[in-house]
């Protein structure tokens, strides 16, 4: 097995913050409608609405920005490079803001990286923006690197602002992207970690104490054979963590295997959205029509879990209403407040085996609780299996 090293471990990452995530889809209107009506995103900029260029629409919720790209016939996108056709609807680009684009591009090229778009500069009345697009080591994932240091505008050059009457913050109240999870082919994680360490200065973030980055955190059980490994840019929480997920050999397919049937070389499986109040967010999104992955009643009635929930000052029935999972720190130092992690997965955004969103609230917790990880992945697998059954039943009735 390839051993992971961290050549950038003593250096500051060249990444400043996560700018946006791009979705490339065949029917942008449907995805935009779901993001607006269900997830409370607000369109704020666009290009190509006249049909001359491929449609690109930017939507915002708090500091979270998605750009929805129409699948183009030619590679004529701004701030991106099209995924080769044919391609399923996909989340395919994590864009980062950087400060020294030319220097970073030289570093990437010297490390054998392929620039899909060389450093390019665009101008407007608000100044200039430079960007480049690099292909990652994983599947169809690419990274747009943007230097906005000489730009004072809020809308990137080439996009036109969209005026909406409602400028108030959404009641769903998400703030920023907490983490991005990749579905990876078996055995690929060490190479992916090494690439992100060498190119962007990511470092191993253990999911449990003493974790070996070459082995990660393994979870075994019925349809839940997973290996998870996480990396971060130390001191730069606005960059967000990256979590790599692989399936372990087992009987039957789990959600990683199902995702890889459509993204054979791996890709972005889900994005965790940070919220200051997961109960308010889940209620608002449920009222808008979002379906969350539920938990079996036994999760909330288990005496140990019930006591854990009550000690956190919460009510089991309140969590059960939305399928929210709770994990707390088990070892506390004297006078240390209990660290709490709350999470829930939403339904797939494109199709049953595709990209989806997660709500996550951190009350002092910085990692990912082992109990939450197990329950989250089981709940999502149950939801995918249920959706598959409904699709099959619908096909039979038709």
Automatic annotation (TrEMBL):
Gene3D superfamilies: 2,3-Dihydroxybiphenyl 1,2-Dioxygenase, domain 1. Signal peptide: none annotated. One of its GO terms (molecular function) is 4-hydroxyphenylpyruvate dioxygenase activity. Its cofactor is Fe cation. Binds 1 Fe cation per subunit. PROSITE patterns: VOC. Keywords: Iron, Metal-binding, Repeat. It comes from the Eukaryota. InterPro entries: 4OHPhenylPyrv_dOase (IPR005956), 4OHPhenylPyrv_dOase_C (IPR041735), 4OHPhenylPyrv_dOase_N (IPR041736), Glyas_Bleomycin-R_OHBP_Dase (IPR029068), VOC_core (IPR037523). Fe cation binds at residues 179, 270, 358. PANTHER family: 4-HYDROXYPHENYLPYRUVATE DIOXYGENASE, 4-HYDROXYPHENYLPYRUVATE DIOXYGENASE-LIKE PROTEIN. Belongs to the 4HPPD family. This is 4-hydroxyphenylpyruvate dioxygenase. It comes from Engystomops pustulosus.
């Amino acid at each position: 097995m390839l051993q992971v090293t961290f050549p950038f471990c003593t250096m500051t990452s060249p990444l400043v913050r996560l700018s946006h995530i791009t979705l490339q889809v065949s029917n942008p209107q449907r995805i935009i409608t779901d993001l607006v009506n269900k997830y409370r995103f607000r369109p704020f900029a666009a290009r190509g609405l006249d049909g001359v260029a491929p449609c690109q629409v930017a939507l915002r919720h708090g500091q979270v920005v998605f750009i929805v790209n129409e699948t183009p016939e030619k590679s004529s996108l701004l701030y991106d490079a099209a995924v080769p056709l044919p391609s399923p609807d996909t989340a395919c680009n994590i864009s980062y803001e950087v400060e020294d684009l030319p220097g970073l591009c030289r570093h990437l090229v010297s490390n054998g990286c392929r620039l899909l778009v060389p450093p390019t500069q665009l101008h407007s009345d608000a100044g200039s923006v430079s960007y480049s697009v690099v292909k990652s080591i994983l599947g169809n994932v690419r990274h747009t690197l943007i230097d906005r240091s000489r730009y004072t505008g809020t809308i990137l050059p080439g996009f036109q602002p969209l005026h909406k009457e409602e400028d108030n913050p959404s009641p769903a109240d998400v703030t920023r992207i907490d983490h991005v999870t990749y579905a990876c082919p078996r055995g690929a994680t060490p190479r992916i970690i090494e690439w992100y360490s060498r190119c962007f200065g990511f470092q191993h973030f253990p999911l449990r104490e003493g974790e070996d980055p070459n082995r990660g955190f393994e979870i075994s059980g019925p349809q839940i054979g997973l290996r998870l490994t996480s990396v971060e840019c130390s001191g730069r929480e606005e960059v967000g963590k990256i979590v790599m997920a692989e399936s372990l050999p087992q009987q039957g397919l789990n959600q990683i295997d199902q995702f890889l049937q459509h993204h054979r070389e791996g890709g972005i499986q889900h994005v965790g959205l940070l919220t200051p109040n997961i109960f308010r967010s889940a209620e608002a999104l449920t009222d808008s029509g979002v379906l969350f992955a539920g938990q079996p009643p036994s999760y909330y009635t288990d005496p140990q879990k019930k006591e854990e929930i009550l000690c956190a000052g919460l009510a089991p029935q309140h969590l059960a209403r939305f399928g929210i999972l709770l994990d707390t720190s088990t070892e506390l130092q004297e006078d240390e407040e209990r660290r709490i992690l709350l999470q829930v997965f939403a339904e797939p955004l494109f199709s049953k085996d595709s990209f989806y969103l997660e709500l996550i609230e951190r009350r002092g917790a910085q990692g990912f609780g082992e109990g939450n990880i197990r329950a989250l992945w089981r709940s999502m697998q149950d939801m995918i299996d249920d959706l598959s059954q409904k699709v099959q039943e619908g096909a039979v009735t038709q």
